[in-house]
Amino acid sequence: MGIVQKRRTIEEIFLQSGLLNQETLKKAEEESKKSGEVLQQSILDAGLATKAEILRILSREWRVRAVDLSEMDIDPDVGKVLPKQLSKQKMVIPFAKEEGMLLLAMRDPRDVFAVEDIQLRFGIQVIPYLAMSSDIRAAISKVHGGDEPSPEAIEEEEDAGAQQPQSQSTQAELAEEAQELTKELLEGLNATASAGGVEVDKGVEMEDIMQVDTSAPEVEKLVNAIILEALRLKASDIHIEPFEKKLLIRYRVDGALRKSTFKVPFTFRNALMAKIKIMGGMNITERRIPQDGRIQIKAQGKPYEFRVNIVPTVLGESAVMRILDRSGANLTLDQLGFLPDTQQRFLDSLAKPYGLILVCGPTGSGKSFTLMAALAAVRDPEEKILTAENPVEYNLEGVIQVQVNPDLSLGEGKKFDFGAALRAFLRQDPDTIMVGEIRDEETGHIACEAAMTGHLVLSTIHTNDATSVLGRLSEMGVPAYLIGSTLECVLAQRLVRTLCKNCKEPNPDPPKDLLLALDEIKVDYSKATFMKPKGCHKCGNKGMKGRTAIHELMIMNDEIRMICKPGVKSEDIRVLARKNGMRTLMEDGFVKVTQGVTTYEEILAAAK
Fold this sequence. Notes:
With 608 residues, the protein is of the alpha/beta class.
């Protein structure tokens, strides 16, 4: 078994090269501590070695090329590819371009995070070169001169750390990090205000609200604090809302809005919105129309994506950031709260080679999660799966995912919507197709025809329950014969809050209405353990933590297909579906109450 060679420190490199001895190395280290410079620059400044010797030794050790910037004239157009502040912050300067690649002089070419950040932000391949700090500073000064950066440049120069709050800590450490960052933020704001710099709003409107710059460190800390607090709480959305003389930060946790633990000075509202727009790739100068953007970050080693929507209000801009856990597609049907018999019947429908399977429910009911889990269940290396989504929320390995764009014109009045994507998919020889939503006649018609011609089609539709889907499709204009012959099953679902596992306690006196309902649907609760919320530090003293789904699965059979005619009543379909074994949303929820998962009140609120 081979021995992995330990990477040498920079001190060891210079000692073993013979360029320095212990005495000169100590002198260079003392100089480095005083100046705050990297060791190689301190060696050069102290006259202990020549620039050529330092560059030769380090480039050989680190296996990168070196460049002496003092010996070349950098084209200003190349040098200004990166904003001045970003170059100074990361101590880098572009010095040449070759075949679409940017040659980048760096103080430390081993800094892969800086390289990846620049590649992602500017969409160009970077080749790192080693250079001395003093030469990089001189080159930045020469290329950019003494010009003050424009507001747009300042905003682009923000540290990517605000966009990528990284932490490899546990959940408890993340909470501590968010709290410390919040404390530091507020202390910094107060100190700055006391010093006469940025004025903190005390309830009086300032005349020049934009004196708080997006490049101010307080704004960067504020964005980090907001994001970290959301991840700590496991929030699904961040709401940033302007009210009269105050800016409110709220988080949606387990379906309910919760105020942030810290307050943001009202004077920061425009700077905060501008920062979010920069991160989301939106137009920072436009404040009159709604805008949409996307932000990608990593935290705790996990990828997250934020879907950002900003709308103008009479008191300023309001933003909502939907948090998408990019690892969420790893969920399976077993983790989505299905009762065993419901899950098995759903899997039986998914196992069929063709047909239309729909998931219905209101916005925020977890339909996308269920579809991703369903696709994961039917995924097979021997089959081709295509999805049309807007937007693509979760990445699924082995599945070809397409993001539709209704704003993109295909000519002749056609747009790249779900219908256009479906038509294109049918020429891609697919086995399984998932379309984000059926919202019009064209999409519904093509989905049914695809299901009729040998494809398994999965989609979502907005209805309150499973039996209303037939009427909804008919209202769209999809022929009844198509609906009846292609629809295999409809799954309706809602999300309900679950009891905190840490503090829930037995409920010896469950509601009488619940017991009557259980008797009516013939559920044996003689051995059930009813639970009630208590409250502890883990659930914020609310007694509820996390969510699960309640389901209503309607399997199509011959009886239901026979009555699929224009004008058929949802109640008639419901009678046949229940006769066929369908458990309603309310009934599914009551069973989960007997299992001690949630409460009677939660089910009534979600499925009434």
